[in-house]
Amino acid sequence: MGSGEPVKSPIEKLNPLTKMLAIFCLGLATLIYPNSWLGLGIVIVLFGVAGIAHILTSFAKTIFGFGIPISLMLFFIQGLYSPKNKTIIADLGFAKLGEEGLLYAAKIVITLLVFLATFYIMNQTTYAGKMVAALTRSGINPQVGYLILASLNVVPQMHRRLDIIKEAQEARGVETTGGLWARLKAYVPLMGPVVMSSLTDAQERGMTLETRGFANTNVKRTSYIEVTTSKADTYLRAGLIIFLVAVIIISIWMRWAQ
């Protein structure tokens, strides 16, 4: 490893399929568990994982930026107007605040946060090409893998192109700063070139792949990106599956015991 190459965190070194399995197992476990306490514990653990991956600041901004407004909205709707409400906590006059609605809202919020948190960590610590290479190696059609890669790259590509066109417009004297109305007037004309250039890039990329025989099936495909499965991946996958099975069994027992 060269001196200028950044050191990868343990999360980045994991196989992308391991991270996808974590999204499925942790999200499904939170969804199945009867209350929100398990999901809350998972979210706290994921904050630690984000710290290990060196993305704690952006992770916290995303989680709180999504969690606070969605929590307020769901607590208001479910807490006051849920048909599940039987135990009244407070009478506000125009509506009654129910315990069941609040608990149901908390369950929804925590489940969404677990899915969001795990997906965010995977997205921030996984190179898109490595993810597609791992999916292709697992047996997925290369054309499907390309569609996934193209979908993941379309927004960053459009954002980069928008910055380039914006800088070009500023060099020509077009005002792109100021108030909301000034920015709106500046950005609307930019959307046409951005969309057209993106469509042109997609067409050129498709023609390039076709001329290189991307659709051929009777060939052995190779990849510049090497994806390996380490012992850490094996142990973590086994642990995630065991965790999910244990949560399913405990959840069934808790519902049966009620």
Describe the structure.
Helix 2 (16-32) runs antiparallel to helix 5 (99-125), helix 3 (37-52) packs parallel to helix 5 (99-125) and helix 7 packs across helix 8. The radius of gyration is 24 Å and the shape is flat. The chain has 9 helices and 2 strands, in the order ααααββααααα. It has helices at 10-13, 16-32, 37-52, 56-81, 99-125, 128-137, 142-171, 180-211, 231-257; strands at 88-91, 96-98. The chain has 2 domains: 10-127 and 230-257, no CATH class; 140-211, no CATH class. It has a two-stranded antiparallel sheet with strand order 1-2. Helix content is 73%, strand content 3%.
Supply database-style keywords.
258 residues, flat, mainly alpha, two-stranded antiparallel ribbon, disordered N terminus, 9 helices, single chain
Task: Briefly summarize what is shown.
This protein is mainly α and 258 residues long. It is built from 9 helices and 2 strands. It has a two-stranded antiparallel sheet.
List the helices and strands and how they pair.
Elements: H1 10-13, H2 16-32, H3 37-52, H4 56-81, E1 88-91, E2 96-98, H5 99-125, H6 128-137, H7 142-171, H8 180-211, H9 231-257
Antiparallel strand pairs: 1-2
Helix pairs in contact: 2-5, 2-9, 3-4, 3-5, 4-5, 6-7, 7-8
End-to-end CA span: 57 Å
Characterize the overall form: flat
The number of domains is: 2
Number of E-type strands = 2
Strand content: under 5%
> So how many helices?
9
Main sheet? 2 strands, antiparallel
